[in-house]
C-alpha cells in the first residue's frame, strides 16, 4: 500500500484507548494521538474526539465535521498504512480558517511520523546515547 492510502475509521472504544498509549502531539487546534500498529498490510485508521468541555452538542458536532473534512481533503498529508490516528479537537477548531486547519494537520502528522521513525529524537536523546532506564529483571 502507498503512504497516501485513504484512511478508514476508528469506531470502537478499545481502539481509541489503545491509541492513547502512543505518541501525543499538541497543536493549536487539536491534539494528535498516533500509534503504529506494526501491520503495514492494513489501511490507516482515523478517529475524532471532542470532549463535552469544548462546547454544546452543536459546537462539538461542528468541530468533528470540520476535522473530518480536513482529513478527507488534506493534500500533503500522508497517513501511513498500519497506523492509527486520533484527533482530539480543541475549541479553537471552530474559529480557525480551514486552510490553517489543514496546514496544522499536515504539520502534526509529519512531525508524528518523524518522531515514530526516530524514537531517540522524540525523547530528546542524542543518537547512540545509552538509555538511563533499567532493564527489567
TrEMBL record:
Sorted UniProt keywords: Endonuclease, Hydrolase, Nuclease, RNA-binding, tRNA processing
InterPro entries per record: RNase_P
Pfam families per the UniProt record, alphabetical: Ribonuclease_P (PF00825)
Catalytic activities: Endonucleolytic cleavage of RNA, removing 5'-extranucleotides from tRNA precursor
Top EC class for this record: hydrolase
Physiological role: RNaseP catalyzes the removal of the 5'-leader sequence from pre-tRNA to produce the mature 5'-terminus. It can also cleave other RNA substrates such as 4.5S RNA. The protein component plays an auxiliary but essential role in vivo by binding to the 5'-leader sequence and broadening the substrate specificity of the ribozyme.
Sequence segments annotated as region (Disordered): 112-137
Lineage of origin: Bacteria, Pseudomonadati, Pseudomonadota, Alphaproteobacteria, Hyphomicrobiales
Source organism, top-level taxon: Bacteria
Family indicated by similarity: Belongs to the RnpA family.
Protein name: Ribonuclease P protein component
Quaternary structure annotation from Swiss-Prot or TrEMBL: Consists of a catalytic RNA component (M1 or rnpB) and a protein subunit.
Record GO terms (molecular function): ribonuclease P activity
EC number: 3.1.26.5
Amino acid at each position: 500500500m502507498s503512504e497516501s492510502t485513504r484512511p478508514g475509521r476508528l469506531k470502537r472504544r478499545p481502539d481509541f484507548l489503545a491509541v492513547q498509549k502512543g505518541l501525543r502531539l499538541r497543536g493549536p487546534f487539536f491534539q494528535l494521538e498516533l500509534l503504529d500498529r506494526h501491520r503495514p498490510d492494513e489501511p490507516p485508521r482515523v478517529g475524532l474526539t471532542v470532549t463535552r468541555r469544548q462546547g454544546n452538542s452543536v459546537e462539538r458536532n461542528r468541530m468533528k465535521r470540520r476535522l473530518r473534512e480536513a482529513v478527507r481533503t488534506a493534500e500533503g498529508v500522508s497517513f501511513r498504512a498500519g497506523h492509527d490516528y486520533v484527533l482530539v479537537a480543541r475549541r479553537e477548531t471552530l474559529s480557525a480558517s480551514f486552510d490553517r486547519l489543514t496546514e496544522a494537520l499536515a504539520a502534526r502528522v509529519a512531525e508524528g511520523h518523524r518522531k515514530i521513525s526516530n524514537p531517540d529524537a522524540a525523547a530528546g536523546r542524542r543518537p547512540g546515547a545509552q538509555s538511563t532506564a533499567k532493564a527489567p529483571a
